[in-house]
Amino acid sequence: MNELKLKKPMIIKICLLLFLCFLCAGCAKTTGEPLTLDNLAGKKVAAMIGYSTDYILSAANYGLDIYRYDAYSDMQLALKFHRVDAIAMEMDEAYVFCRIEPDYKIALHAKNQIEYGYMFSSDRKEFLPEFNQFIQKFKKTEEYADLLRRVEASAYAPYQAKKVKNVVTTDRVLKVAAFDGWEPVSYINASTGEWEGADVELITHFANSLGAKVELIDMSWNQMLIELGSGLVDMMLCPDSLMLAKDLEMGGHITMSDPVFLKDIVLIVNKEEK
């Protein structure tokens, strides 16, 4: 018994030493050189798995070593401890990320002005042509221009949400899968318990054009795809690049809308190093 008590602290020390060796090896410092479109080949870039950033930057012409994560916090830690050279984000979320986390900054626009649309369930075919007709008109309005201005301003201050009242005049219901905590796209206001965000406002305007009740349902990304493919929700509030349309529509369960936004894909780096 005494011999065992003597050995246990030593075993713990050895385990801790092995863990630290593994951690340090995994956190070997990345290149540290300024990122340009000419030197991206071979760079380690973190991206959210399955997102437009992952799909687009995985193209062979970039030559990137993509590290895929399912949480933004994991990507942030990977960058902080030099497991990757940069994080790939869409411009609107990068605005907020760099405002909240001042140790990071936008280093490079990897892809500009990409068309983004929404995913609709193929089981509710009537909503897609109605939305496409709506968005063509809505993009010409002051409400749409103001929405874009407030998204851009979220780089300097919290997104200034505007309440859009849902005016219901029919018995129609638009079931929308949404993702909480995604300023300025969609999030639940902690004080009021209500959904806010640029895309929340836009889709409420769409519901009003139909006289339909909009029902926002909080879901994870993976759950959204399952529910949408099963026809349990009518659409996803998370916009995606139309470059994914062919692959997403291949199974026959999902269809993509006409362009809603133009977005840039940017690379985020540690501020003190670039």
In what order do the strands lie side by side in the largest sheet? 2-1-3-13-4-11
- Count of discrete domains: 2
Structural class: alpha/beta
Low-confidence stretches: 1-29
Averaged pLDDT, please?
Answer: 87
For this structure, the CATH topology of the largest domain is: D-Maltodextrin-Binding Protein, domain 2
The level-1 CATH class of the largest domain: Alpha Beta
- Tally of DSSP helical segments: 9
What distance lies between the first and last C-alpha atoms, to the nearest angstrom?
56 Å
What's the architecture of the largest domain, going by CATH? 3-Layer(aba) Sandwich
* Rg measurement, Å: 22 Å
The main pleated sheet reads as:
6 strands, mixed
Helix content: 25-40%
Task: Estimate the global geometry from the Cα principal axes.
Answer: globular
| % residues in beta strands | 15-25%
Give the total of beta strands.
Answer: 13
Secondary-structure element pattern, one letter each: HEHEHEHEEHHEEEHEHEEHEE
Descriptors for this entry?
274 residues, alpha/beta, D-Maltodextrin-Binding Protein, domain 2, six-stranded mixed β-sheet, three-stranded parallel β-sheet, 9 helices, 37% helix, 24% strand, disordered N terminus, Solute-binding_3/MltF_N, Solute-binding protein family 3/N-terminal domain-containing protein, signal
List the topology elements.
Blueprint: H1 2-26, E1 44-48, H2 52-57, E2 65-69, H3 72-80, E3 86-90, H4 91-100, E4 104-117, E5 119-121, H5 127-138, H6 142-153, E6 173-178, E7 187-188, E8 195-196, H7 198-210, E9 213-218, H8 221-230, E10 235-236, E11 240-241, H9 245-249, E12 254-256, E13 261-270
Parallel strand pairs: 1-2, 1-3, 6-9, 6-10
Antiparallel strand pairs: 3-13, 4-11, 4-13, 5-12, 7-8
